[in-house]
Amino acid sequence: MSVKDSIYAAEQQVKDFTFDANVVEVFPDMIERSVPGYATIVSTLGKLAGKYAQPHTRLYDLGCSLGAVTLSMRRNLTQSGCEIVAIDNSQAMVERCRMHLQGFRSAVPVDVQLGDILDAKLENASVVAMNFTMQFIPPEQRHALLSRIFNALKPGGVLLLSEKLKGENADVDELLVDLHHDFKRANGYSELEISQKRTAIENVMRTDTLSTHIKRLQDVGFSQTQVWYQCFNFCSMVAIK
């Protein structure tokens, strides 16, 4: 059973959110109670990876955190000669991810790397997953990262992108935020926790509208983009090269 997230339960001087050891300890509970449909997203990303993986290619999990998507992809892989490369810039996340993966047997090799995905070497890829990762990349560097991902993908390869969205206008954004906060209240978060978490994350998570995401994917060369899941301001899409 996961440890309950109570990081923001007590009033405090709120600092910018980081994926440190404290967050790692409660991350499964935090994500389950904060992201509507998270389990569905992770399991479906694995199925999509299984569908689009090509023999003797790499599958990347960029911003892998504890390896939930890596595990899901590995579970669904049937093509021969594939390797999964999982990358995260949090030492605490990477250490726990390696331990977590060791608990599940598989013939598919996984290389868990500590590093910045902006500098990572990407090549011979058929699937690249970014599950709630792009929103933590500086906005001015997102186009270049997507270009590198596109260039690393083989024809017919896919980018699996999940993101928290900003509403297309102020009224819609307020509606989506309110619905999300109701979701968090229903999962036991207090008003103090919701407020302090929002303060902690506002400087490190910069969300885009759905139209911004789709235009950027088109601009770097993806031929098709399809949203397959959305609940409130959380969305997952597949972009095909």
Q: Assign an overall shape.
A: globular
Mean of all residue-level pLDDT scores: 94
Low-confidence sequence ranges:
none
> What is the H/E string?
HHEHEHEEHEHHHEE
Instruction: Indicate the multimeric state.
Output: single chain
Q: What is the CATH top level name of one domain?
A: Alpha Beta
Radius of gyration: 17 Å
The termini sit apart by 39 Å
Number of strands: 7
**Number of helical runs?**
8
Helix content: 40-55%
At the fourth level of CATH, the homologous superfamily of one domain is: Vaccinia Virus protein VP39
Could you describe the largest sheet, including whether it forms a barrel? 7 strands, mixed
Q: Could you say which structural class the secondary elements and strand pairing correspond to?
A: alpha/beta
What percentage of the residues does DSSP assign to strands (E)?
A: 15-25%
At CATH level 2, the architecture of one domain is 3-Layer(aba) Sandwich
CATH topology value of one domain: Rossmann fold
Strand order of the largest sheet: 3-2-1-4-5-7-6
Summarize this structure briefly.
The chain has 241 residues and is α/β, with parallel strands linked by helices. Helices cover 41% and strands 21% of the residues.
Characterize the structure shown.
With 241 residues, the chain is α/β, with parallel strands linked by helices. The longest helix has 17 residues, at 170-186. Helix 2 crosses helix 3 (68-76). Strands 3-2-1-4-5-7-6 form a seven-stranded mixed β-sheet, sandwiched between helices. The protein has helices spanning 21-34, 38-52, 68-76, 91-102, 142-152, 170-186, 191-201, 210-220, and strands at 58-62, 83-88, 110-114, 125-131, 153-164, 224-231, 234-240. The protein has a domain at 38-166 and 205-240: 3-Layer(aba) Sandwich (Rossmann fold).
